[in-house]
């Protein structure tokens, strides 16, 4: 039991010293949920997962250098490579699978569709959290479809099982939502779920902000995984910017004004006006003033000329 807990929290990226310290404080029989809470309270942060998963792999050293410079980073799935501008993805496996199965069947194919969608976009860090008891043979009250997909995703180090066990015939399940939010928060990534995690929002103010700003909802349309184009509403970022670490602001010239020549915003309009390309973009009020001042000024000059004559 002790070793399985060590392995599980090592998979999440926590240091062995921190885990041992917590287990000493809480006792070896402490539930994984309580251990995670204590790790959060201690302020322990996961280290790079790949540096633990591949300890034997040597780091790259520049030619002519005898030591690794602090600037060199692992080119791993954690997205630490500076060229990778996409956010890490943490998927609520239960939510996605039940949504694809119309809330009646735990459809593992739905999880595969979601993972494939993010892979096609180029995301390298994708983690799916599913309770461990989903490994068990399906029962009538909890049917599972395409269960073999879970094993395949686990082999690819994409799927992580949250702990569960049986005590006196009753199943004790750890709260998988806490793992989902915790890992997404630590990785500064995106949570894929249609759940709002209200209880966790009330539990931690930092998590509240994170859930509000980084929750990506979705729909399944004819076996097609479809997140919204505007995840935070019509005035928020585009889906592409939402999933990027460095949002790309659209250039004004590529966004023609929907009102065209009828636009009344003048120089305050944020869109492109081809008809204003060679003229100073005055506001409509300033344009009218300019037009009315010119003939008045001309008339006064003519009067002055007559008087002087």
UniProtKB/TrEMBL annotation:
Q: Which cofactor is essential here? A: Mg(2+)
The segments labelled Disordered in the record are 46-65
Q: Which GO terms describe its molecular function?
A: hydrolase activity; mRNA binding; RNA endonuclease activity; zinc ion binding
- The C3H1-type domain is annotated at 251-276
Q: Which UniProt keywords apply?
A: Endonuclease, Hydrolase, Magnesium, Metal-binding, Nuclease, Zinc, Zinc-finger
- Answer whether the UniProt record assigns the keyword Metal-binding to this protein: yes
The record's InterPro entries line, in alphabetical order, gives:
Rege-1_UBA-like, RNase_Zc3h12_NYN, ZC3H12/N4BP1_RNase_Reg, Znf_CCCH
An example Gene Ontology CC term for this record = nucleus
| Zinc finger feature spans (C3H1-type) | 251-276
What family is reported?
Belongs to the ZC3H12 family.
- This protein is called what? ZC12D ribonuclease
């Amino acid at each position: 039991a002790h070793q399985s807990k060590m392995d599980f929290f090592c998979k999440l990226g926590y240091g062995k010293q921190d885990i041992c310290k917590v287990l000493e404080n809480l006792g070896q029989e402490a539930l994984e949920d309580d251990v995670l809470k204590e790790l959060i309270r201690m302020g322990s942060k996961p280290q790079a997962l790949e540096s633990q998963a591949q300890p034997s792999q040597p780091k790259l050293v520049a030619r002519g250098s005898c030591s690794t410079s602090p600037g060199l980073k692992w080119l791993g799935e954690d997205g630490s490579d500076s060229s990778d501008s996409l956010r890490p993805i943490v998927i609520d496996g239960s939510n996605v699978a039940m949504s694809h199965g119309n809330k009646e069947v735990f459809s593992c194919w739905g999880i595969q569709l979601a993972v494939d969608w993010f892979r096609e976009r180029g995301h390298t860090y994708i983690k799916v959290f599913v309770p461990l008891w989903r490994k068990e043979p399906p029962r009538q009250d909890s049917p599972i479809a395409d269960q073999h997909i879970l094993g395949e995703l686990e082999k690819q180090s994409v799927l992580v099982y949250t702990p569960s066990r049986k005590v006196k015939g009753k199943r004790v399940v750890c709260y998988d939502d806490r793992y989902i939010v915790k890992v997404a928060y630590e990785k500064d990534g995106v949570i894929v779920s249609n759940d709002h995690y209200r209880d966790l929002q009330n539990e931690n103010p930092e998590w509240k902000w994170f859930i509000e700003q980084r929750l990506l909802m979705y729909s399944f349309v004819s076996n097609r995984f479809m997140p919204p184009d505007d995840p935070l509403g019509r005035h928020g970022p585009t889906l592409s910017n939402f999933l990027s670490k460095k949002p790309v602001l659209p250039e004004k010239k590529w966004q023609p004004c929907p009102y065209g020549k009828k636009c009344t915003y003048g120089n305050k309009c944020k869109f492109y006006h081809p008809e204003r390309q060679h003229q100073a973009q005055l506001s409509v009020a300033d344009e009218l003033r300019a037009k009315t001042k010119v003939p008045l000024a001309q008339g006064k000059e003519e009067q002055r000329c007559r008087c002087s004559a």
